[in-house]
Amino acid sequence: MGSRLSKSDVQRWLAGQREAQKVIEKERVHALRNRTPEESWAIYLSLTENELWNPRDAAEPSYVLMAMRRVLDRQTRKKRPSA
Fold first, then answer.
1. 35 φ, ψ to 5°?
2. CB-based contacts of 47: which residues, under 8 Å, 6+ apart?
3. Which residues of 54-77 are buried (b: 16+ CB within 10 A; e: fewer)?
4. Is 5 exposed, middle or buried (0-12, 13-18, 19+ CB in 10 A)?
């Protein structure tokens, strides 16, 4: 079995995540305020060309969704008692 996390480790990690989120939000606002409409449109169009944002076959689940399901399935199997 792996080592357990202490409450103080988790609290320190969460505090770091909150601080990182503040910095990311400030950078995001700064970047958005300094873009022209043309630059914003170009970024949007480049995102829609990405397969994760614009899948070829919308009837198929996304790669990310399928990966998440596999992880959850493995976790569920690990927690089940063996019979």
1. -95, 145
2. 53
3. eeeeeeeeeeeeeeeeeeeeeeee
4. exposed
Q: Name the token pair of 53.
A: 């944002």
Give me 3's structure tokens.
């080592």
Amino acid at 7: K
- Is pTM beyond 0.70 here? no
Q: Can you tell me the distance from the alpha carbon of 28 to that of 16, in angstroms, rounded to the nearest whole number?
A: 18
Per-residue confidence (pLDDT) for residue 2, from 0 to 100: 63
What is the chain's alpha carbon radius of gyration, rounded to the nearest angstrom? 20
Q: How many helices (H) and strands (E) does the chain have?
A: 3, 0
Q: Return averaged pLDDT per consecutive 10 residues of the chain, 83 residues in all.
A: 81 95 93 90 80 62 82 82 60
Residue 45, SS3 per DSSP:
helix
